[in-house]
Amino acid sequence: MAADQVSNKGVILKRYVTGFPTEDDMEVVTSGFSLAVPPGNPTAVLVKNLYLSCDPYMRNRMSKHDDDSATYIEDFVPGEVLAGFAVSKVVASGNPDFKEGDLVWGLAGCEEYSLIAHPEYLFKISHPELPLSYYTGVLGMPGLTAYAGFLDVAKPKKGDYVFVSAASGAVGQLVGQLAKISGCYVVGSAGSDEKVNLLKNKFGFDDAFNYKKEHDLKAALKRCFPEGIDIYFESVGGAMLDAVLLNMRKHSRIAVSGLISQYNLEQPEGAPNLFCLVAKRIRMEGFIVGDYFGSYQKFEEEMVGYLKEGKITYVEDIVEGIDKVPEALIGLFSGRNVGKQLVAIARE
Ligand SMILES: NC(=O)c1ccc[n+]([C@@H]2O[C@H](COP(=O)([O-])OP(=O)(O)OC[C@H]3O[C@@H](n4cnc5c(N)ncnc54)[C@H](OP(=O)(O)O)[C@@H]3O)[C@@H](O)[C@H]2O)c1
């Protein structure tokens, strides 16, 4: 290996995925990585990745979309390293905005070292005094998702009744806490008693339930919201969405962040109660966090303030080593993660 070459382990997609992904759909491979800025790309940034983020949207990129009308991002390419959000340290840069030693977060690869050809989704870390891993979560993409989706799309008012599904996860735990800061009453659902306990006793939700133990979701929601729901922060879809529709109030809002229960289905389910949108004049609006990256700095300062004042707390599920990426990634779809799932692959 040449003097400026290092070995680089990365996770590739072996084949396009249909149905539930398995570890065997991915493979950890080793290649060489040059630590010099390539002459053909003089403004590239080279980074050493410290933490890799596991995010549900990555499943969408593992499928082949012949018709791109139902997606918003390119499919992964079999044989290539998966793209993903990471917290990283710059090891070389031809870009005037980044220099060697900078700590950054943004879109990189699921690998030890990444060459970032177009660093438009790379942000400098302004608060290294906080855990750097937070930039995969509360101070990164999921944090901005919770912030923008709840405050800008759902537009809470003091006293609103708010329901959050997948509530203990990377996004959901923050939506619940932002709802409390906004003066709302908030209930969350999650898939285990351990997670329900976190919602009530760590994140300050007013109430929570284990949806896997409820045989009638409509009745469970009625029990938690006898007067109905003003805001539903949607991450799940399917039967949960359908039960929520029946419990929404007139002129209520649904901010659609994701539909994780549908991501591994070959035939997505419908929502038989969709007419509730008409009958109750509900505003249902989807959003993509990428549209809010322009307001990242404002979000970061506000969220850092909440963390430092103890108004927001954050739970992470950290596994060690790049070999763990496939297992951690697919664990999102069985609820194995407790809090934000990430993989630590190097220390600074
Ligand atoms: N719109 C955007 O820009 C944007 C950005 C980021 C994330 N998102 C979306 O936000 C949602 C949450 O993402 P996250 O990063 O915070 O993930 P997460 O909640 O940390 O992890 C995923 C969780 O989803 C739950 N889940 C998995 N399969 C399920 C199913 N079939 N039915 C019900 N719940 C299921 C599991 O929790 P339980 O144990 O509680 O079931 C699992 O732990 C996802 O839908 C994601 O696509 C959207």
Automatic annotation (TrEMBL):
Coiled-coil ranges from the UniProt annotation: none
Subunit (UniProt): Homodimer.
SUPFAM superfamilies with a match to the protein in the record: GroES-like, NAD(P)-binding Rossmann-fold domains
Gene Ontology molecular function: any one: 2-alkenal reductase [NAD(P)H] activity
Pfam families, per database record: ADH_N_2, ADH_zinc_N
Source taxonomy: Eukaryota, Viridiplantae, Streptophyta, Embryophyta, Tracheophyta
Gene responsible for this protein: LOC100827727
PANTHER family assigned: OS12G0226400 PROTEIN (PTHR43205:SF75), PROSTAGLANDIN REDUCTASE (PTHR43205)
Keywords assigned: Oxidoreductase
The Enoyl reductase (ER) domain, residue ranges: 22-343
Domain of life of the organism encoding this protein: Eukaryota
Gene3D superfamilies assigned: Medium-chain alcohol dehydrogenases, catalytic domain (3.90.180.10), NAD(P)-binding Rossmann-like Domain (3.40.50.720)
CDD domains on file: double_bond_reductase_like
Protein name in UniProt: Enoyl reductase (ER) domain-containing protein
Protein's organism: Brachypodium distachyon (Purple false brome)
